[in-house]
Design a protein that fits this description.
This protein has 436 residues and is of the alpha/beta class. The chain is built from 14 helices and 17 strands. α2 links the parallel β1 and β2. The two termini are 35 Å apart.
Length: 436
């Protein structure tokens, strides 16, 4: 799916997901052709590109987004739809690696992405089944200790939206015997991710932004006085270029290739369960994820399907049989769904950074990039979009903090990053099974 000449498999049309099948109406935009010029050109019409672009057109800039497929075609339109606060790397990890000042800075923005999403939905009337609350669940006593520590750590930074639940209390939220307890984040939530992207794109265009679809980028010149983006049929000159291709940027910008690795995750959707069964499974309609290294995540859709996701494939390949991979896990959580019909199953890539901290920076003077959300891109991309827009508008305060966080390539380079990561995942999965 993510090879250089195969980045937009399926001719760039949306994958056969539940989200694509239930997407709000959206226009088909033209491909980039001829010679064009704007103030700011953004590559990628996913959350990072749309968030950056929408902030910039609100400030009055002339902005164009060049997308290789359709709006929200990649991870932004395929993910679990969960608004989960925080980065993949914990605040404690960030403190140990980068110091207290950086940890305090990150703590100050871990809830910002969810706030931006809610602001966008309200301001622009985006219909995306937005709901409140997410729950982290623990399967062992060690997991519960981890959740207790997380609650205390976040509270020490003034974040007090989380509520610890024992096994019996969790029953009011999840009708499953699998878990020892959980932690509710009342500031989390969930939504229809593709409809959020389509709504943000419509808002961007309403304010004068231009989106070109079905325009895979073939070459980028970041060294020119005015960066140039080339496609098969057109060129875009700009004063400022923003690279938001994330896991689907391919090898167009070699300087970024070694910084992240594509990882696929899978989701499936049952048939509609009906109000009674759906309510009995997740009574308060929160979204859920456990805290294992290779985790399960699930929630109810707007039409009361169970959306169940999990699994990882390093390198970004798609499993042969997604349902066979996910169904046993779903039925372990909810035996009530044994044998239930699965209407949709799909896969998509996110970009993993070695440090699990997203990256933001510049190539030369006029090209910015953001990527590597490592599975936390729904909220992270919206926050980074705002920070990128601030930097382009002249306020580098927050951008500089992230640009100066050290990044490290995967050990062994591109040739060995997949087997290295697989070995690491085996180790952590074994720890999960042993409860340590």
């Amino acid at each position: 799916m993510n090879a250089a000449n195969n980045t937009y498999a399926g001719n760039g049309q949306h994958t056969t997901s539940y989200y694509a099948a239930s997407a709000n109406p959206a226009p088909k935009r033209p491909a980039l052709s001829g010679i064009n010029e704007v103030d700011i050109c953004i590559i990628g019409a996913g959350y990072s590109g749309l968030s950056t672009g929408l902030h910039l057109v609100e400030k009055g800039y002339k902005v164009a987004i060049v997308e290789g497929a359709r709006v929200g075609w990649g991870a932004s339109g395929r993910n679990g739809g969960q608004i989960v606060n925080g980065l993949n790397a914990s605040l404690q990890t960030i403190k140990k690696r980068y110091g207290q000042d950086t940890a305090t800075f990150v703590a100050g923005l871990v809830q910002e992405g969810g706030q931006i999403i809610r602001e966008r939905v309200k301001t622009y009337g985006i219909q995306c089944d937005l709901k409140d609350k997410n729950i982290f669940t623990g399967l062992t006593s060690a997991h519960m200790k981890e959740l207790e520590d997380r609650q205390a750590l976040w509270k020490s930074y003034g974040i007090d939206n989380q509520e610890l639940l024992d096994k019996n209390q969790l029953r009011a939220h999840i009708n499953s015997d699998l878990y020892e307890g959980g932690l509710v984040d009342h500031s989390g939530g969930h939504m229809h991710p593709l409809n959020l992207a389509l709504g943000e794109a419509a808002a961007f265009e309403k304010l004068g932004g231009i989106i070109y679809e079905m325009s895979p980028v073939t070459d980028v010149d970041t060294d020119a006085a005015k960066p140039v983006v080339k496609t098969a049929k057109g060129k875009m000159f700009c004063k400022t270029l923003v690279l938001c291709g994330n896991a689907y940027l391919g090898h167009v910008v070699p300087a970024l290739t070694s910084r992240v690795m594509p990882v696929s995750t899978q989701v499936m959707a049952t048939k509609p369960l009906g109000e009674e069964l759906a309510h009995s499974l997740i009574p308060q309609d929160a979204c859920v994820e456990d805290i294992r290294y290779i985790l399960d995540y699930f929630r109810l859709s707007g039409d009361k399907r169970m959306l169940f996701g999990g699994g990882t494939v390093y390198g970004g390949a798609d499993p042969r049989d997604i349902e066979a991979k996910l169904r046993p896990n779903m039925e372990k959580v909810f035996p009530q769904l044994k044998g239930i019909q699965i209407d949709y199953a799909w896969s998509g890539n996110f970009a993993l950074s070695f440090s699990r901290v997203p990256q933001m920076g510049r190539l030369g003077n006029n090209t910015y990039f953001a990527h590597g959300y490592s599975g936390h891109g729904v909220t992270g991309s919206h926050t980074f979009g705002r920070i990128l827009s601030e930097a382009i508008d002249g306020d580098l305060t927050r951008f500089d903090v992230f640009e100066n966080i050290p990044w490290f390539p995967f050990p062994g380079g591109r040739a060995f990053r997949v087997p290295y990561s697989v070995m690491g995942s085996w180790w952590y999965a074994l720890r999960d099974r042993l409860g340590v």
